[in-house]
Automatic annotation (TrEMBL):
It catalyses: (4aS,6R)-4a-hydroxy-L-erythro-5,6,7,8-tetrahydrobiopterin = (6R)-L-erythro-6,7-dihydrobiopterin + H2O. This is Putative pterin-4-alpha-carbinolamine dehydratase. Coiled coil: none annotated. InterPro entries: PCD_sf, Pterin_deHydtase. HAMAP family: Pterin_4_alpha.
């Protein structure tokens, strides 16, 4: 089920640096080195597999941008919040 705008605002207030961009949750992580960025992506991949919910990932040198939404629902759901929270715990 899609989050209401109130629910989404409440959740975003608890997620450091995550924003809504074109109807999806998005954050860019800036790692110290390229190898650290790749290691982070591997950790995100493991997390995503465990949740069976996968983000779009853009790697630009040390910057890793994660974009997530629940396509089946047509927007942002609790699944997306869970993935975002899990990613925050990885760094």
């Amino acid at each position: 089920m899609l989050l209401s705008s109130t629910e989404l605002s409440e959740q975003l207030s608890r997620l450091n640096g995550w924003d809504v961009v074109e109807g999806e949750l998005q954050k860019t992580y800036r790692l110290e080195t390229f190898p650290e960025a790749i290691q982070f992506v591997h950790l995100v991949a493991d997390l995503a597999e465990s949740l069976d919910h996968h983000p779009n990932i853009l790697i630009e040198y040390r910057n890793v941008t994660l974009t997530v939404s629940t396509h089946d629902e047509g927007g942002i759901t609790e699944k997306d919040i869970m993935l975002a929270k899990g990613c925050e715990e990885l760094v």
